Amino acid sequence: MSLYDFDGATVIITGASGGFGSELTKQLIRRFNCRVIGIGRTKEKMEALAESLGKRKIFFKYYTFDVTDKNSWQRLKATFEKKGERPDMLINNAGIMPPFRKFEDESSDTAKQVMATNFMAAVYSCEALLPLLLQSYRGAIVNISSSAAFSPIAGTAIYSASKGALKNFTQALIEELDGRMFVSLVCPGVSETGLFRDMDLNKDDLETMSGFGTDKADMAKAIIEGLMLRKKLILAGKDSKLMTAISNAAPAHANSLYTKVMKGAHLHIFGEL
After folding, report:
1. Domain 10-270, what architecture?
2. Global pTM value
3. Mean pLDDT value of segment 47-67
């Protein structure tokens, strides 16, 4: 099996300005001279990322729009076609996670927002860019889901559902596009990223979570190494590998076990779960 050729590739990354997105951007540019096209909502954050690249910022370009807007993806496609450009890889990384709480304390409006960002945005981007990606000899789609797609836990009903939808969507694409395009599903575990920006994390929470989480730079490196090997499923992070193994081995008991572990950790973000 040949390695995926990252050298000089044009890679589109959603949610590029923070978390895994910024780390993937930096590593792909610094290691492989990739041309990264970042997608995000905030110009200031994109500019800050560009400046952090130093002289290599010439390899970075960005567009600011809401990934949940279907028309914006169609306009991006039209821009590529007008300029005669062709992306090689699409990495759907953008995601949001509402605070941990019981579903009975949540609303359907939250579900719509989370599903739009974590699932429908990937559907829109794939719909728009798949024809262009198929024109590249190294065309690829990478959807970053979560370990929660395999191991949903109490307090994340909506988030886990959105990541489960993305997982199933991606696994179907892997089969449909087999032989024509490399498609990969990435399921990372806990890491200190912007995903937790809406969480009320205190010092004790951060210390506890860091104990079983993985540094975002290490996570990005693991993702890239998995993509180089053309892995269809990448479980990034020690907790992701462990929880997925437990869920596969004991699906009837895994979720109860996770709930007991969370309660035993006494993390205040889990509130009244």
Report:
1. 3-Layer(aba) Sandwich (3.40)
2. 0.87
3. 97
